[in-house]
Amino acid sequence: MNRVKWMIILAAFLSCKFVLAQNKYSPYTVFGVGDLNGMALANNAAMGNVGIATPSVWHVNNMNPALLTYNSLTVFEIGVEGENRTVSNEFNSVKVGTGGFKYLTLAFPIIPNKWTSNIGLMPYSSVNYSFSTRQDVDGTNVDAIFDFEGDGGLNQVYFSNGLKIAKGLSAGLRMSYIFGLTEARTSIYLDGEGVTQQFPTGRHEKTNYSGFDLGLGFFYSKAVTETNLLNFGLTYDLGGNINGNRLDRLEIETTTGNYVPGDTLINDESGKYQLPAELGVGFSWQILNKLSIGLDIKRSFWQENAGFLYDDTSLGQDAEEYRSTWAIGLGFQITPKYNDVNSYLKRIKYRIGLDYKQEPFVIDGKTINNFGINFGWSLPVKGVSAINMAVKYGQRGEASGVLVKEQYFKFVLGATINDRWFVRRKYN
Q1: Please, how many CA atoms are within 13 Å of residue 423, restricted to the half-sphere of its CB?
Q2: Triad 214, 219, 225: Cα angle to 5°
Q3: Do residues 47 and 54 lie in contact, with contact meaning Cβ atoms separated by under 8 Å?
Q4: N or C terminus: which one in the chain shows less Cβ crowding within 10 Å?
Q5: For residue 283, how many C-alpha atoms fall within 13 Å in the half-sphere facing its CB?
Q6: Mean local confidence (pLDDT), 82-87
Q7: What is the domain class of 3-385+397-419 according to CATH?
Q8: For residue 367, pLDDT beyond 80
Q9: Does 8 score more than 70 pLDDT?
Q10: How close are the terminal C-alpha atoms of the chain, in Å?
Q11: How does the average pLDDT of the chain come out, rounded?
């Protein structure tokens, strides 16, 4: 496919509604702005979301902007994600499958091997849940049933730059604009002795978010031998507040399943949601064109009351509780023989990784952890491009008390196009 066709695809993705971040089902996305998706592309995801200190000439270095200097060619990457999830508690379980847009990014050298820029679009968070709870009404034979539904999420458009400072040393800067909409609906109805036909009443909450985030990156590489390298990377995201406007009103559900706004508007007020500052440290060992082993450690600094807070404190505040968290990833990549013209299998990049992440929200005093086993590969295609695949089996939470256990299979399918774009011809 030629360059013009790829640019048409890029423009189509930037203009379509497919980019809305709704590619995940989980009751845990009820908290805050939902699950945060991170910056990993398919090649990073297959290595346990490792990438702070693992440079790549053939992929956009999305995890640490300082690594962009390795992209001396123009690199275009696109990816989609699919997932099959089993959610269970102490009484039953449900299986769901979802899928959607994952990332779209383009890196291009301004001064090859010295300064590279990168623009991209990807989901920042995902909200997608639907569940019910039942509660006795004191003194009666009637139960109150609460239905909870939510969807939406945030997206981010980012612009990154990597600049080489000295031999083996580079720095980077990423600027992100975060925006999106989340909706939450709670319906209440009665079930039991003497209950006649009713129109369930509830509450509809719609919040628009927008704001900016800034990330810094540093990278240093030390050659031990001609082909062996030791690498060190450091990233820091500033976090801070993003602005939100929340419309909150009562509504009534009709017999046809539609919702009619009630007469009561609870509030239409502005507020803020606190994004965490995040410090990341990465280490890797490389044998050029052969082997890469990487380790990433991240610390996210959440404020205890990081949920949505109204500017007008008289309206009451979000009761969600948060904690600061750790995330660790360990990844391995091997290419048997990158230049073997007789064996296609030897030119494939094979990856495997493990990742562990603490979730920031606290539920009834209990914390949630997430663990995954990852693997994948990059299949070389014409030239120096590739088809990328990452597969993950993960588990989050436990089926105990108010908590649920999630077991999921996730895959990311991506395409990487490397070419020399924006270069003026010397000969006609």
Answers
A1: 14
A2: 170
A3: yes
A4: C
A5: 4
A6: 91
A7: mainly beta
A8: yes
A9: no
A10: 22
A11: 85
pLDDT tens per residue, range 193-202: 665 555 557 7
- Which tokens in the block code for residue 425? 């011809």
How far CA 287 is from CA of 52, 115, 325, 359, in Å, comes to 17, 24, 32, 34
pLDDT average, residue stretch 128-136: 79
Please state, in angstroms and as integers, the Cα–Cα distance from residue 28 to each residue in 123, 149, 359, 397, following that order: 17, 12, 10, 9
Total residues found in the chain within this entry: 428
- What the block records as the tokens of 132 is 């019910």
The string of pLDDT tens digits covering residues 14-29 is 433 334 444 568 889 9
